[in-house]
Amino acid sequence: MIHSMQGNILTPRGWVLGYIYADEGGRISRIEGTATEPRHNHAPYVLPGFVDLLNHGGGGADFMDGEQAVPGILRTHVRFGTTSLLGSTMTSPHAVLLPALQQLAQAGRQRPAGGARMLGVHLEGPYINPGKLGAQANSAVVATREEVAQYLAAAPIRVVTLAPELPGHLDIVAMLAGRGVRVQLGHTLGSYEDAVAALAHGASGFTHLFNAMTVLQHRAPGMVAAALAHAEFAELIPDLLHVHPGAIRAALRAIPRLYAVTDATAAAGMPDGSYHLGDQTVFKAQGGVRLADGTLAGSALTMDQALRNLVAIGLTLEDASRRVSLYPAQYLGVADRGLLAVGAWADVTVLDRDLAVTAVYVEGECCVQNA
User: Fold this and answer.
1) Does 237 lie in the same domain as 146?
2) How confident is the model at residue 1 (pLDDT cuts 50, 70, 90)?
3) Is residue 283 within 8 Å of 330, Cβ to Cβ?
């Protein structure tokens, strides 16, 4: 048995009051207990570990900083219940991005002791619209098949964000989808029709929904309407700064497997002050991270706070849990994370009754013990 892995366990079939057992390989071998409703007891919540598919860094470091920065980032986010994530890049020149990807590939080969598992890379740019950079650097370019193939050979890229309206990008969408990469539409000035065409070519998601994309207008419905009308999956930053709770509610009604991401920067898990995002300086204050001109620049969000925010705006704990664990894992096609079931990795986040993290296990290893 994994020590302290006792409580109200959220399984795919509902709550069980009992214990989780793991084998020496770090996978769940047995769940024992009785069906329950947590309101009938005072035991902690035992949830699937959180899965974050858009994360630029934390603990003062950025994934673009190189291989040596990665273990510290993974140990920072595990403190907040994240057990697996994608290391996300920034829009950068080819001469910067290619070696960064090669270093991320090297860093991701082994999970550091006491840290989360890096599942691969989210390439956020450089194939974005220069008119919708957000906090990305102005190094956006149009994709070529040759360059994309070079990046795919350099690192295990699982997700690519691009602007579908740029010339030749529908062909790139089809190429990436054919290689098993999840293509997301974001940092885009594209129309509703551009989005529908990209979905038809194999795109499958939307990057930080509502942010850095064309808005919904009733005669020009834009990217947002395409997501609401057609998406099965989309990511959203629920820090309550990037998206108003009312817009989150609208998306929840429209997109079956809307899931949370942090879009965390080096400022996550750190005090207020100045940090870097790629090669830009950003400032953490009042719960947000911004450029000097006030533009939101990623976030300081952690996945435990994302869960609490979703519950605060009215989701049940079970539904909120799916949106920080199960749905992002399903989007990646990862069947053995994001849920507590026999055979899955023993990635577990234990919360007290106030939804504060008390313990975190990654592949059976106790990485956090706060109580």
Assistant:
1) yes
2) very low
3) no
- Stretch (H or E) spanning 175: helix 169-178
**What's the CA angle centered on 275, arms 60 and 107, to 5 degrees?**
40
The CA distance from 292 to 305, in Å, is 25
Q: What total of structural domains would you count in the chain? A: 2
263 an active-site residue?
yes
Residue 59 identity: G
Q: How much is the pTM?
A: 0.98
Query: Distance (Å, rounded) from C-alpha 344 to C-alpha 260?
Result: 21
Domain that holds residue 343: 1-48+338-371
Bridge partners of 79, per DSSP, are: none
Of 198, 194, 222, give the one whose Cα is nearest residue 210: 222
CATH for 187: 3.20.20.140
Say which residue the tokens 């003062």 belong to: 60
Q: Is the peptide bond before 126 cis (omega within 30 degrees of 0)?
A: yes
Q: Is the Cα torsion angle 110, 158, 260, 207 positive or negative in sign?
A: positive
Q: What is the DSSP string of 41-110?
A: --PPEEEEPEEEEEE-EETTEEGGG-GGGHHHHHHHHHTTTEEEEEEE-----HHHHHHHHHHHHHHTTS
CB-CB contact of 296 with 134 (8 Å): yes
Q: What share of the chain is helix, strand, coil (3-state, %, to 5)?
A: 30, 30, 40
Phi, psi values for residue 26, rounded to 5°: 90, 15
CATH of the domain at 36: 2.30.40.10
d(CA 149, CA 322): 33
* Res 54 pLDDT > 50: yes
* 98 in the same domain as 143: yes
**342 and 30 in contact (C-beta within 8 Å)?**
yes
Helix (H), strand (E) at residue 45: strand 45-48
Q: Is residue 92 domain-shared with residue 77, that is, in the same domain?
A: yes
Q: Provide the β-strand partners of residue 28.
A: 22
Within this chain, do residues 149 and 216 fall inside the same structural domain, yes or no? yes
- Asked whether residue 32 falls in the same domain as residue 80, the answer is no
On average, the pLDDT of the chain sits at 97
- Across the range 227-254, mean pLDDT stands at 98
Question: Which of 263, 293, 319, 336 is flagged as catalytic?
Answer: 263
| Residues recorded for the chain | 371
